[in-house]
Amino acid sequence: MDPNQIAIDALRAAVSAAPGNIELVRQLCELLMRVGRDDEAEDQAKAASARFPDRHNFTLLLAQIFFRRGKDSHASAIVETLLKADRDDASVLLLQCRLQQRRGDIRGAVATYRDAVANDESARDSELESLLGLRDFDESDEGKIPDAVGMPDFDVDGSRDEEDAALPEMEADLSDGFESVGGMDSVKEQIRLKIIYPLQHAEMYAAYGKKVGGGILLYGPPGCGKTHLARATAGEVGAGFLSVGISDVLDMWVGNSEKNLHAIFDKARRSKPCVLFFDEVDALGASRSDMRRSGGRQMINQFLSELDGVETNNDGVLILAATNTPWHLDSAFRRPGRFDRVIFVPPPDAKGREAVLEIQLRGKPTDSVDHGKVAAKTEGFSGADLKSVIDVCVEQKLTEAIATGLPKPIVTKDLLTAAKTIRPSVNEWFATARNHALYANEGGVYDEVLDYLKVKR
Length: 457
Known about the structure:
The protein has 457 residues and is an alpha/beta fold. It folds into three domains: 3-132, Tetratricopeptide repeat domain (Serine Threonine Protein Phosphatase 5, Tetratricopeptide repeat, Alpha Horseshoe); 170-344, Rossmann fold; 350-419, Helicase, Ruva Protein, domain 3 (Orthogonal Bundle). It has helices spanning 3-17, 22-34, 38-51, 56-68, 72-85, 90-102, 106-119, 126-132, 185-200, 202-207, 226-237, 246-249, 256-270, 296-308, 350-360, 371-376, 383-404, 412-419, 427-439, 447-453; strands at 170-171, 214-219, 240-244, 274-278, 317-323, 341-344. A six-stranded mixed β-sheet has the order 1-3-4-5-2-6, with helices on both faces. Helix 14 (296-308) links the parallel strand 4 and strand 5 (317-323). The relative contact order is 0.09. The model is unreliable at 136-165 (pLDDT under 50).
């Protein structure tokens, strides 16, 4: 009989007799992994984690197996949950470090590794240090993060041009409101209740002590219209629109990112009513637990201070932000008075897809297009995916027109043929979001994702 199978059977019997023994479970999982039976190892860890939800060792074991199997999004969701419970757990920090290293965040991985070793000297791992390219790592190095190969050193006292970086331009007189956004009726209504009605009925809201302003965080898969929705919000109320990207804020010199951020908020306050929109806000407000020794913490603190209006009044500034990865955003941003309304922006439903198709086909030569039929064949498509369908269709019609010299209008069949060449782009996002919704859903913030996926809780 196969000696590996004999050992596996013996360990299974031992685990059955002592299911709470983490070392036995670990040995069984590692043996199963060594012989290439990864799925069985994962099943064992899941069962142990479900049986003892309060024993973080089982949950960590599951995360380690996910990591070894290349399921990084699964592992990351568990690690984030464990670090919320104990930010100083060296074993969890080491796994976070490996995840950061694998996705190329070497600077973050180095900082995390140093935290792990500072909390537990026995956590030092020469193999991991080699992967990170650390040189002369020494705890007596006055708290400095060690150098890493390929990481340029900057003189934090260096100077740059005295002239401030140009601020993003304010867009005014946006004519397109919510009528330019296909579907998303529920999302539109939440935006109306939170920031549009208070502006349109300021006196009534003031009678109840409600200020004109506030923040909404829009999250969901890419290509589903978050940016377009923010722009349409400004058009809906006739407000100025100030769109802020990463490059408008981040600066390599210490202190300048905070100055840029303050200048942007100041410009919005001087232009109110104004919709201040932060795209990819997770890049500006990443979790501070991931950068405890980084200057980025100061920028995040500045961001929070600006949202609170500590030194000035944000009344009349309507703040919207969008992200594809809300789980990377520092939890402090979701406190009352900041981005206290978190709205899931899913791919459009059938009715929404009809509306999107109708809007995107305006101005193009068409003939009796059955929007409903096309919508039925594009389930799960984002707004960007539907645009790709139309682009492919137009390219095909142009090719035919050039060949025959006779341009023909777009018909339903053309769109259905083009749709067969496009695959929904949101599937990968939902795979990652599902893991966070299952394993890191503190306060039920991602319940809408589970509802959309029809996952039982």
